[in-house]
Specification:
single chain; two-stranded antiparallel ribbon
Amino acid sequence: MALDTDTVRRIARLARLHIPDADLEPLAGELSNIIGWVEQLAEVDTDGVAPMTSVVETTPHLRDDVVNDGGYPDRVLANAPDAEGEFFAVPKVIE
Protein backbone atom coordinates (compact mmCIF):
# COMPACT_ATOMS: atom_id res chain seq x y z
CA MET A 1 0.00 0.00 0.00
CA ALA A 2 1.51 3.27 -1.09
CA LEU A 3 0.77 6.38 0.91
CA ASP A 4 0.60 9.78 -0.74
CA THR A 5 1.52 13.09 0.88
CA ASP A 6 -2.13 14.01 1.53
CA THR A 7 -2.62 10.81 3.55
CA VAL A 8 0.59 11.42 5.51
CA ARG A 9 -0.51 15.01 6.18
CA ARG A 10 -3.87 13.72 7.47
CA ILE A 11 -2.19 11.08 9.68
CA ALA A 12 0.14 13.75 11.08
CA ARG A 13 -2.81 16.03 11.84
CA LEU A 14 -4.66 13.21 13.61
CA ALA A 15 -1.51 12.45 15.63
CA ARG A 16 -1.14 16.17 16.41
CA LEU A 17 2.31 16.24 14.77
CA HIS A 18 3.67 19.19 12.83
CA ILE A 19 5.57 17.91 9.82
CA PRO A 20 6.99 20.43 7.35
CA ASP A 21 5.82 20.03 3.75
CA ALA A 22 9.38 19.24 2.64
CA ASP A 23 9.42 16.16 4.90
CA LEU A 24 6.07 14.73 3.76
CA GLU A 25 7.34 13.02 0.59
CA PRO A 26 10.24 11.11 2.25
CA LEU A 27 8.01 10.21 5.18
CA ALA A 28 5.36 8.87 2.80
CA GLY A 29 7.97 6.53 1.30
CA GLU A 30 9.16 5.34 4.71
CA LEU A 31 5.62 4.69 5.95
CA SER A 32 4.79 2.85 2.72
CA ASN A 33 7.80 0.57 3.30
CA ILE A 34 6.69 -0.12 6.88
CA ILE A 35 3.16 -0.96 5.76
CA GLY A 36 4.66 -3.23 3.09
CA TRP A 37 6.53 -5.19 5.77
CA VAL A 38 3.33 -5.53 7.80
CA GLU A 39 1.49 -6.80 4.71
CA GLN A 40 4.24 -9.39 4.21
CA LEU A 41 3.71 -10.59 7.77
CA ALA A 42 0.01 -11.05 7.05
CA GLU A 43 0.95 -13.58 4.34
CA VAL A 44 2.75 -15.90 6.79
CA ASP A 45 0.87 -19.14 7.46
CA THR A 46 0.27 -19.31 11.22
CA ASP A 47 -2.21 -22.20 11.28
CA GLY A 48 -1.41 -24.53 14.15
CA VAL A 49 0.87 -22.03 15.89
CA ALA A 50 -0.19 -21.26 19.45
CA PRO A 51 -0.19 -17.60 20.46
CA MET A 52 2.76 -16.57 22.62
CA THR A 53 2.36 -14.98 26.01
CA SER A 54 6.09 -14.78 26.60
CA VAL A 55 9.31 -15.27 24.66
CA VAL A 56 10.47 -17.84 27.20
CA GLU A 57 8.14 -20.72 27.97
CA THR A 58 7.84 -20.79 31.77
CA THR A 59 5.29 -21.80 34.33
CA PRO A 60 4.51 -19.34 37.11
CA HIS A 61 5.49 -20.19 40.66
CA LEU A 62 2.21 -20.55 42.49
CA ARG A 63 1.67 -20.85 46.20
CA ASP A 64 -1.19 -22.52 48.01
CA ASP A 65 -4.01 -20.13 48.79
CA VAL A 66 -4.33 -20.71 52.52
CA VAL A 67 -5.20 -18.39 55.39
CA ASN A 68 -2.04 -18.00 57.43
CA ASP A 69 -2.75 -15.10 59.81
CA GLY A 70 -6.43 -15.14 60.59
CA GLY A 71 -8.53 -15.73 63.65
CA TYR A 72 -6.71 -13.15 65.78
CA PRO A 73 -8.95 -10.06 65.77
CA ASP A 74 -7.60 -8.82 69.10
CA ARG A 75 -3.98 -8.87 67.89
CA VAL A 76 -4.89 -7.37 64.50
CA LEU A 77 -6.92 -4.53 66.01
CA ALA A 78 -4.42 -3.79 68.80
CA ASN A 79 -2.90 -0.87 66.84
CA ALA A 80 -6.15 0.41 65.36
CA PRO A 81 -7.07 3.97 66.40
CA ASP A 82 -10.74 2.97 66.64
CA ALA A 83 -12.49 -0.38 66.40
CA GLU A 84 -16.02 -1.64 66.66
CA GLY A 85 -16.25 -5.31 67.49
CA GLU A 86 -13.89 -7.16 65.14
CA PHE A 87 -13.75 -4.35 62.55
CA PHE A 88 -11.78 -1.18 61.93
CA ALA A 89 -13.87 1.93 62.53
CA VAL A 90 -13.27 4.80 60.10
CA PRO A 91 -14.85 8.23 59.76
CA LYS A 92 -17.81 8.54 57.44
CA VAL A 93 -16.66 10.04 54.13
CA ILE A 94 -19.96 10.09 52.20
CA GLU A 95 -22.76 12.27 53.44
